[in-house]
Structure formats: C-alpha cells, structure tokens
Amino acid sequence: MKSIKTWILVGFASLLLVACGQGGGGSGSKKSKTLDNTKKAGFVKCGVSQGLPGFSNADASGNWSGIDVDVCRAVAAAVLGDADKVKYTPLSAAERFTALTSGEIDVLARNTTWTLSRDADIGLTFVGVNFYDGQGFMVRKNSGINSVNDFRDGISACTNTGTTTELNMRDFFNSKNIKYEPIAFEKADEVVQAYDAGRCDTYTTDKSGLAAQRTKLSAPDDHKVLPETISKEPLGPVVRQGDSVWEDIVRWSLNTMIEAEEYGVNSSNASSLKESDNPAIKRLVGAEGELGAAFGLDNDWSLRIIEQVGNYGESYKKHIADTGILPNRGPNELWTKGGILYVPPAR
Amino acid sequence: MNLKKLNIENKKIRDFIPQALTVLALLSVIFYFATNAQINMGNRGISFGFGFLSQEASFDIAFSLIEFDGSYSYGRAFLVGLLNTILVSIIGIFLATIIGVIVGVARLSSNYLIAKTAEWYVEIFRNIPLILQIFFWYFAALRALPSPENAINFYDISYLTIKGWYIPKFVWTNFDIFFYSLILAFISIYFLNRYAKKQREEFGKILPTFTLSLGILISIPLLSFLLLGVSLSFNYPELKQLSETSYTYVNGVSIIPELIALALALSMYTATFIAENVRAGVMGVGKGQKEAAASIGLNKGQILKLVVMPQALRIIIPPTTNQYLNLTKNSSLAAAIAYPDMVLVFAKTALMQTGRAIEIISITMLTYLSLSISISILMNWYNKKMAIKEK
User: Fold this and answer.
1) How is the beta sheet containing A44-48 ordered, strand by strand?
2) What is the rounded radius of gyration, in angstroms, for the C-alpha atoms of chain A?
3) Are A206 and A159 in contact (CB under 8 A)?
C-alpha cells in the first residue's frame, strides 16, 4: 500500500511540472502588448503615491486626484475613451519600480525624479516631466534658522528612504562639511509625525512635498520652508522599457495637456475649437490630420484628454494652486510665460 | 553480479524511484522559475548580477556599529544593516528572557496581586499586534520625552531626550590587553569549575565555586589595570546649541530612540510567550519530585537548581527557541520607525537606489535564513546539553 501512495505522489508532482511548463514566459512582441491588455481589461493600471496632496491623494471616499493622477486619467481618456477608467495602486517609494517592471502597473505617475541611472539601468523609461521640482528644507520658525547656512554640526534631518532626496541630502551636507544625523522613514506620514514630535530639526524632501506635508503638521504656521533649493528634481511619469507604442501614448498624453494650455484650448472650449483657423489647434482637437493612427488610436484621442481631464494649466490650478500648496507656478509655467514647460509640437 | 538487484521487483529500487522522481520534479520547478525570471528580466532590459555590491552606496546611515558613510559600498551597507539587526535581536532576546522569566515565575506566585498583574501583562501584550506596539513605543511613549535642553538627567553623566539616550563614551587605552585578561579569567573559571566538580565527586568536598569565580572575574582584569597599563576614561555628553531653539548632545554615544522603541516593543511582546513557556515548564515538574528532593535533605536552593530547573528547562527550551527566532524575524518591522536594520538599509534603501530587486531580496532572505538556523543550532545544542541523559 505504501508504494501505491508514493506513486500517486509522483504522479501529482509530474502533473504539476507539466502544468508549469505550459505557462509561458512573457515575450516581447512588435505590437503594443500593454495597449492590447489595457483595452482588454478596460482600465489603465496606474501606480500612484500613498497620499501626497496635489500630486496623488485619495479623498475619504477613495477618489484619487492630483496632477500625477491626471496623467493617468489622460491616458485612460485617450485609450479607453473615459478618464475614470483607471485602477490606482498606491505604492511606497521602495515598491514603485518593481511594481512597474513586474507588470502590476503600466504607468507610474508618482512624483518620481528622472535620473540617468533609473532611466538607463533598471528597465524603465521616463516619458517626460509633469512637474519641475527641487529639494528644500523645512524648519521651525522659532529656531532662528533663515538659510541653510545656519545649519550646524549635529543637526538631525528626517526624510524618506529610497529616494533621490536621501542622496542629495548627503551631497549637500558633505559639500557644506556639516555632520548630520539622517533619519529615513519608509512612509511620508511617519516622517511628518517624527518631525512634528521634535525627533529631528529639519525635514527635507522636494519643495512641493514639503508644502503639501506641512498641511499635515499639528501647527503648520509654526514651520517654514527655507529659500534654498539644493537639487534638480524633474518629476514625471514612467513606463516599462520595451513597449515603444505604449511609451509614446503616455508621453503624448502628457504633451497634449501642456500643448493645449499653450494654444489656449481648455476643457470647456475644446469641442468648439474644431472650427478654429489655427491648424495647430485643429490638430490638437482632432479636426485635422491623422495623428492618433500612429499609435493605433482614433483621431479624437487628444480631444477627449482635453475635454475630460483639461489642459495642464487647469490641472495645476485645480490641484496645486487652489489648494494653497504652491500658488506660484515658478518653473512650471509655460515657456511663453517665463517658465520652462516646453513640449515638442504635435504634428 | 546479481541481476535481481536492478529489477523493479527489488523493494529497495522500488522505494528509491519515487523519491528520485520527486527530487527531480522539485529541481525542475526551481529551474523553471529561475529560467522564467531570467527570460522576463531579459525581455525588460534588466541585467542580473552582484557587481552593484562593490559600488558606492552614496547614502548615509544614522546608526552603525562599524564605520560607515556614503562613500562605502553597498556591501558595507548590507553589513551595517546586518549588524544592526543582530544588535536589536540580541538586546531583545536578552530583555525578553529576563522579563519572561520574571513574569512567568510571578504568574505562579501565591500572592494574588503579583499573579494577577503578571496575568494581565501577558494577556494584554500578546494580544496586540506587534507593529502597533512598535508604533506605540515610538510615537506615543517616546514622544513624551523632553527635548535635549530639558533632558532627563542621570547624575550629569547620561541624558534621556526625544532625540535619543546619550551616554558617556568609553575611551580605552590598551583595550586589547584588557580583552585578553577577560579571556584568561574565563578560562581560569572553566578549570576551577572542573576541579570543583572533581573534588565534589571524588572526595565529597563542596567548594564555594560562585564566590571564587566572581573573585577571578574581578581580580584578573583589575590586575591588567594596575600592572599592564590598561586605562579607561569617559567622554561625557555635552549640550550643544544648534539654533535658537534646538539643541543636541555631542561627544558622548547616542542610543537612537528608534533602537530603544524597537527593542522595548520586541522584548515586551516576546516576553509574554516566554513567560508562558516558563510557567508551563515549572508546572510540568511533578510535585513529588520536590518532595522527594526535600526528603533526602536538599535545601530550597539545591532543590531548584538540581531537581526542578533541569527538568523544567527540558520543557522550556524548545518553544523558547521558537520565540527567539520569531523575535529575530520580527525585528524586520524596524523599517516602520526608521531603525536602520537589514531590511530598511538593504532590502529597501539599497534596493531602491540600485533597482536590483531579485538579487537583494535573495541575499536578504538567505541572510535571515542563516541567522535563524544559527540560533536554532545554538539552542538545539543547549537543549541537548540540558536533556536528561539516560545512563
């Protein structure tokens, strides 16, 4: 009897093996697998932050909003015709790239800094910049610190782990020859709590992040952000390497929003501008040319983005300016108005 | 050669084939997963390799037992994290054992108040998730600590603040000689005990081993101070002003609050389970054993040491080994409160900066496995030593 049992066991083991052998490994195809899968699933798989006001933040009923969220909404509007068809996955800084490369998400719109090593080394492609940021420091107002030059040896600095922030902080303190105590938390909420409790003397992250997180402190008015910016932080959406069609869709969804602002096309006037005299505007609202065909979309893809999500200026105003996070657009103004937002023409 | 041996009728071969096939199937599954990972990584343009371990880490770590800053390699950062994990595990195991034994014995106390307090302690601390306890100690209990300028002052040599516990720094001269003198003392104690055992067994003489050992442990290192030029001085922490309203202590050693909170949470939680093991162990020794021991004239201390404990330990050690392993593995929750253990430094920060998920997670898992197995081996050895030897 015993031997019969063991043979049955072997039978199961071999069955398992055969079953595994049939499950195929992913293979790169010339067509856009991500686009096909997205259409089949009926929603865009979008990775966002665990809650950063203005960029990606969920309200009490679980609705996500923010300028990062709007990138995903734009992609959904372009590909699926409905900006609401997005499935959001909140990710920590440490999880985000793995989630993207493993296919759990297809677009990462999570205030992620574009750097050489991330772009070239780990199978990711950055498609553009939707926010030009820079790292700064927040301190208590009553500390008498008015500039980074007032920092002294022994200062303790709280920040997030696994971000460029942690590296910039070291570069900065080393260049100033200041000894410091780095306290790196995994989640932004815990950084805020620790800073609020007095565990650290300064809180450093991207300035937009500081402005947003300040609202979560027990007494926001007792704190201020120092004027200096110690790094360049171009934040933008990321896709997996190897699907150039999908990459183009995400890139041009973002570019469309910026270009629409440049030509004064917004969510309320977009459809009426089909009759515009300006060919650039007509291309933008799908009344001229066949631009969508290049990535397998219909011609109204860009019109849907503008109508359902709005142009970049509307998105910025709604999420960043009107919420009091950063009312002044600074570098995130159009190139025609003194900023550095400049996208290639859609033609 | 006997052909029958290679026949399927042969029972040995019949038993062997299924086992071999199972092993083969298992290996194939592992091979399949490895190849699959490799193909998919290739498709996504991710390379595989451990070369990153020698690259510059370029991030700093707040608390390290060995010298470290961002100019060292990722390999070194891994070592810092590993040592921090080992440190908090050792502190945790040490405290958990002490608290566990005290509470376990207290639960058996005939004093109603003591027994009930111990029972409440066990029921409360083992039924709250560990991560919440860690948050409690870090964000609630330590938050109540004062800022450095109002520190809780221990006789001007040590200060407890929200930024950490500052203690004097030991400054040794000729530390190596002191270290050797300690080793010498331990060797002497070992031989003393062997000699005492021989005396007891052969001549029935009982030497005051404990007092003698203590004497040796104190006198030999003391001699190294007096005769061999070993000396020790202290750097006391000093208050330093950072800005108009913020202060810190310099010159001393800072024990960061993250370590204190984590060690407290881990030991308070694990101690509840150890306390139950201790209670089970002591209750598992029959009443008759104690009575029999008393009847042959052993005193209370001897009964505990020679009769009750050896038998109780047999029951206590195996489940306590599990608790030690749990504590070590639970220390990986450190990341939540920024204690730079192996998970935070290596499996999160280094993983993020390099993007080498498969390599780093594999290394981390293998390291935890080795740590746990080492503890198991050590405890199994101790268990064997304590087991009743049948003569």
Assistant:
1) A86-90, A44-48, A107-108, A238-240, A124-126
2) 24
3) no
Which residue on chain A is closest to B240 by alpha carbon?
A: A154
Return the residue in B10, B11, B60 with the most chain A beta carbons within 10 A, the one to mutate for interface testing. B60
CB count in 10 Å sphere of residue A70: 30
Chain A residues within an 8 Å CB radius of B29? 16-17, 20
Q: What is the Cα–Cα distance from B249 to B303, expressed in whole angstroms?
A: 51
Are residues B46 and A122, on separate chains, in Cβ contact within 8 Å? Answer: yes
Q: Which residues of A259-286 are buried (b: 16+ CB within 10 A; e: fewer)?
A: bbbbbebbbeebbebeebeeeebbbbbb
CATH level 3 topology of B74-168+236-386: MetI-like fold (1.10.3720)
Indicate the pTM of the whole model.
Answer: 0.77
Nearest-CA distance from B23 to chain A in Å? 9
Do residue A140 and residue B246 have CB atoms under 8 angstroms apart?
yes
Contact indicator for A284, A346 with CB cutoff of 8 Å: yes
Strand, coil or helix: A16: helix
Domain ranges of chain B: 3-41, 74-168+236-386
Backbone angles phi and psi of B115, in degrees to 5: -65, -40
* pLDDT, tens only, A116-154: 888 887 789 999 999 999 999 999 998 889 999 989 888
Cβ–Cβ of B246/A123 closer than 8 Å? no
Q: Quote the ipTM score.
A: 0.76
Dist. CA B94–CA B78, nearest whole Å: 24
pLDDT (tens digit, 9 = 90+) per residue, B13-40? 888 888 899 999 999 999 998 888 888 7
- From the list B25, B43, B348, which residue is nearest A16 (CB)? B25
Q: What angle do CA A56, A57, A58 make, to 5 degrees?
A: 135
Please give the domain boundaries of chain A with CATH numbers for all domains.
33-132+235-334 (3.40.190.10), 135-231 (3.40.190.10)
Tokens standing for B134? Answer: 């860690």
End-to-end CA distance of chain B: 45
CB-CB neighbors (< 8 A) of A155 in chain B: 242, 248
Record the tokens describing residue B41, joined without a space: 């990584």
Q: Which of B32, B62, B335 sits opposite A21 (nearest CB)?
A: B32
Left (φ > 0), alpha (ψ -120 to 50) or beta: where does B355 sit? left
